[in-house]
User: Which sequence fits this backbone?
C-alpha cells in the first residue's frame, strides 16, 4: 500500500510539473498512469482525465485549455488527486465503504454526505435506522442530480418515481436502450431501488408496526446500505461524466 501511495503521489507531482512548464518523461507517465488505471478499487476516485490523456501531449492540451495560470493548474491537480491519496492513506482500498465515502465526498452535497455517514454508523447498532438512511441516500442523490440538471420534481415523491426521473435524465432507463445486456443491467438497478423502497417500508423505523412485526437484523441493514451506496456512486459518476462531456 505504501508503494502504491508513493506511485500515485509521483504521478501527481509529474503532472503538476508538466502543467507548469516542466518537461517530464513520457515513459514514466505511461507507467504510472497504467498503475493507477489497473487498480479497480481506485476507479471511482481516479481523475477522469487520466483515462483520456494517454500521453503527456494529450494531457497538456487538456490542462492548458482548462486553466490559463500555473496556480489554477496546481490547485486543480491537487484537488483531483486528493480523493485517491486520502483513500490510500486510510490503510486499505478493499472495503467498499471507503470507496463509496471518498467518491461521495467529491460532490458538493451536504445532504448526500450526511445520509451516507448516518447509514454507515447505524448498520450494526440500529438496523432499522440504517435502512431508512439507505433509502434517504438514494433520494438525496436523485434530488441532487435533478436540481443540478434543473429538472422539476415533487418535494417528497415515491422513490421509484424519483429514480425514474433521474434515470431518464441520465439515459439509464431500460426503455432508452436496445441492447439486451444493458436493458438487463439497468432493469436490475430499477429493481434495487424498488426493493430498497419496499424494504424500508416493511422493515425500517419509518412506519409503525403492529404487535407482530418483522425486525431487521444487521445483515439486512448491511445489504441495504451496500446496495444504496453502490447505486449512489454509479448515478453520481454518470452525472459527472455527462457534465464533463458537455463542457
Assistant:
Amino acid at each position: 500500500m505504501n508503494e502504491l501511495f508513493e506511485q500515485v503521489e509521483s504521478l501527481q507531482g509529474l503532472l503538476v510539473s508538466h502543467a507548469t512548464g516542466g518537461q517530464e518523461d513520457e515513459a514514466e507517465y505511461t507507467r504510472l498512469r497504467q498503475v493507477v488505471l489497473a487498480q479497480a478499487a481506485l476507479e471511482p476516485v481516479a481523475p477522469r482525465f487520466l483515462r483520456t490523456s494517454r500521453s503527456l501531449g494529450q494531457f497538456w492540451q487538456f490542462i492548458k485549455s482548462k486553466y490559463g495560470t500555473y496556480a489554477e493548474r496546481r490547485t486543480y491537480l491537487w484537488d483531483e488527486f486528493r480523493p485517491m491519496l486520502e483513500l490510500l492513506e486510510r490503510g486499505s482500498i478493499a472495503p467498499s465503504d471507503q470507496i463509496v465515502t471518498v467518491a461521495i465526498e467529491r460532490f458538493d452535497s451536504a445532504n448526500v454526505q450526511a445520509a451516507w455517514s448516518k447509514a454507515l454508523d447505524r448498520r450494526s447498532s440500529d438496523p432499522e435506522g440504517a435502512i431508512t438512511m439507505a433509502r434517504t441516500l438514494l433520494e438525496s442523490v436523485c434530488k441532487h442530480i435533478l436540481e443540478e440538471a434543473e429538472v422539476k420534481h415533487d418535494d417528497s415523491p415515491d422513490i421509484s418515481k424519483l429514480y425514474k426521473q433521474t434515470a431518464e435524465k441520465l439515459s439509464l432507463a431500460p426503455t432508452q436502450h436496445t441492447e439486451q445486456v444493458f436493458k438487463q443491467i439497468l432493469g436490475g438497478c430499477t429493481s434495487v431501488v424498488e426493493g430498497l423502497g419496499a424494504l424500508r417500508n416493511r422493515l425500517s423505523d419509518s412506519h409503525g408496526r403492529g404487535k407482530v412485526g418483522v425486525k431487521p437484523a444487521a445483515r439486512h441493514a448491511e445489504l441495504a446500505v451496500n446496495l444504496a451506496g453502490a447505486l449512489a456512486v454509479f448515478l453520481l459518476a454518470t452525472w459527472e461524466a455527462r457534465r464533463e462531456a458537455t463542457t
In short: The chain has a mean pLDDT of 85. Residues 218-245 form the longest helix (28 residues).
